């Protein structure tokens, strides 16, 4: 099988640009013949290319590892809802900071905004499947739009969507029907030639969704409508912000990335942090700058300012002195001999 390595441009949804996962550790392991791997995919996901008959399906595939592995997939999010299924073996897995070891017939459900990883730090030996369906959303409050080839009745699809959106249950123990469905998916993937099995793949995914709906209905899951409130979308954005503090944020860009309107974004930010969005951003940048100042004493003040997201060293020094009552250099000299944890 050819692994796609072409450069694929970012894509846009709801006015926000997203970058699809590349699964580079998996590609590298496959090239080193550490495991068997087969997938059908689009965007930068590895595998043979899917065509327009399955638009909305981002990736469907499996890996089969029958020897100890030296790689894992670190924390990441997907461009869609993802269902994992472990047919055999064991698999270290974590989702939203909850770590477990999957055993045969475990199914995981990962919504687009939920961080997850496979491996601790390395994956286990086992046969592991995945299906990733793009629903046109990246945040909890946004309405789901299923691909038009999903053929469940309006009532069933509405029920499935409601259960998936209004609870946070992520791991289910499945039955033989779901196991058999993934085995049929295995066959469809293995025998596909230039999307020749597009109809079969569509039918199997529809059948899988019906089985998952049956499974969820039997779980008597308690639903919580507050999980789709726009405040959760802002909360997720603020959690992610620390990893992107160096970007040149405006309040408009922040609200757009959170997926909510400017007024609502400002309201939720104030409720969650007691600060306006730009004030919160400045405070997070200052906290980052203090860590950088002490951890990297060889860096100049200009370099620290840039790494922390401040546009100029002069502005950084002005803001820093206003909040810390000393200059960045004075802060560095004063706290140099103390453990970082003692003053941050």
Provide the descriptors you would attach to this structure in a database record.
344 residues; alpha+beta; seven-stranded mixed beta sheet; four-stranded antiparallel beta sheet; globular; disordered N terminus
Q: Would you kindly provide a written description of the structure presented here, covering whatever features stand out?
A:
With 344 residues, this protein is of the alpha+beta class. 39% of the residues lie in helices and 19% in strands. The protein has helices at 24-31, 154-165, 176-190, 198-218, 230-241, 251-258, 262-273, 277-295, 301-308, 313-324, 328-335; strands at 11-13, 16-18, 36-41, 48-49, 57-65, 73-76, 81-89, 91-95, 98-102, 106-110, 116-118, 126-133, 171-173. Strands 4-3-5-12-7-10-13 form a 7-stranded mixed sheet, with helices on one face. Strand 1 and strand 2 form a beta hairpin.
Mean pLDDT: 92
Spans of at least 5 consecutive residues with low confidence? 1-20
Major sheet summary line: 7 strands, mixed
Cα separation of the termini: 51 Å
Evaluate the radius of gyration: 23 Å
